[in-house]
Write a structure and sequence with these properties.
Belongs to the LysR transcriptional regulatory family. With about 300 residues, the chain is an alpha/beta fold. The protein folds into 2 domains: about 5-90, Winged helix-like DNA-binding domain superfamily/Winged helix DNA-binding domain (Arc Repressor Mutant, subunit A), CATH 1.10.10; about 95-295, 3-Layer(aba) Sandwich (D-Maltodextrin-Binding Protein, domain 2). Helices cover about 40% and strands about 20% of the residues. α1 (about 5-20) crosses α3 (about 35-45), α1 (about 5-20) packs across α4 (about 65-90) and α5 (about 105-120) crosses α10 (about 285-295). The longest helix has 29 residues, at about 65-90. It is flat. About 30% of the residues are buried.
């Protein structure tokens, strides 16, 4: 009886559990509610017990259903990985490689990887999208890019796999003539909050309602890291920057590093990861490019 179970039944079970109702699961799977109910009833006959409690307005997972949900996700995920890898092997070399890259990623390291890619795959065009936050993620989720390099956003999207690449140290800086530059020691967060903080903004709605490292009540949002860099040098506010981008400014004294009092992330880094959709992993060229980013 157990051998008759199908991946379709498990996907229906997962959808019903995640969506909270059989009708919502049907919409997600593009099936009639009656088909969803019938599929789940058959699955319950095969396992020998109820997966959902149906006495209320909405079906609720039983204790046994909750226990099986993680296993169902693992089984479906494993099958998706198998199919995706088989598909990439059948496809062969990508006709083009599109990659979304976090603006925080060290440009020198990216340049060397691109140079090596051009030598190894001279007939494979490489298309790069340099963005921040959700704008790095969205092209991968919607299929415009096969690989994403993310660091400014700490979360890896669900249904994606990721490989660690490197950590990019970051620092808080202000212009030498900014009032905060006069502080010899750590600056109280209340004092920092009195001044304009320059932060990157997301071009997408993926991080809507979320803030990353925002302390001040006076915020200027910029969608471009280069503009943020120039605004910092002009003394228009304070903010964090990848250390490699401001090393020359710190050496010349046009920017000054500051520390915040009682800040749990005094020395923080952007953890860079290569990520891709589990159902659409990179092919040979994409895997090669990711491996080079790890080396340089």
């Amino acid at each position: 009886m157990f051998d008759a179970m199908s991946m379709d039944q498990l996907r229906t079970f997962i959808a019903a559990a995640e969506e909270g109702s059989f009708s919502a699961a049907g919409r997600k799977l593009r099936r009639a509610q009656s088909v969803v109910s019938h599929t789940l009833a058959n699955l319950e006959l095969q396992v020998g017990f109820a997966l959902f409690e149906r006495t209320g307005r909405y079906p609720l997972l039983t204790e046994a259903g909750r226990a099986l949900l993680a296993d169902a996700r693992a089984a479906v995920g494993g099958m998706d990985v198998f199919k995706a890898r088989a598909r990439t092997l059948a496809e062969g070399l990508e006709p083009e490689l599109a990659v979304s890259v976090d603006v925080m990623f060290p440009i020198a390291r990216l340049t060397e990887a691109v140079r090596a890619f051009h030598a190894a795959f001279p007939n494979t065009p490489l298309r790069l999208h340099v963005e921040a936050l959700g704008a790095v993620v969205q092209p991968v989720l919607d299929g415009r890019c096969r690989v994403g390099i993310i660091g400014s956003l700490p979360d890896i999207p669900r249904d994606c796999d990721a490989d660690y690449l490197l950590s990019v140290p970051a620092v808080y800086v202000v212009a030498a003539n900014h009032p905060l530059a006069a502080f010899a020691g750590p600056i109280a967060r209340a004092e920092a909050a009195r001044h304009v903080q320059l932060v990157l903004t997301d071009r997408t709605i993926l991080t809507q309602g979320r803030e990353f490292g925002v302390i001040s009540t006076h915020i200027w949002r910029l969608a471009d890291l280069g503009a943020k860099h120039e605004f910092l040098r002009a003394g228009l506010g304070w903010g964090s920057m990848p250390q490699h981008m401001v090393e020359e400014d710190l050496r010349r004294g046009s920017l000054v590093r500051i520390e915040l009092e009682d800040d749990p992330i005094q020395s923080f880094s952007f953890v860079m990861r290569a990520f891709y959709r589990r159902d659409a992993p990179p092919g040979p060229a994409g895997r090669w490019f990711v491996s080079k980013l790890k080396q340089y």
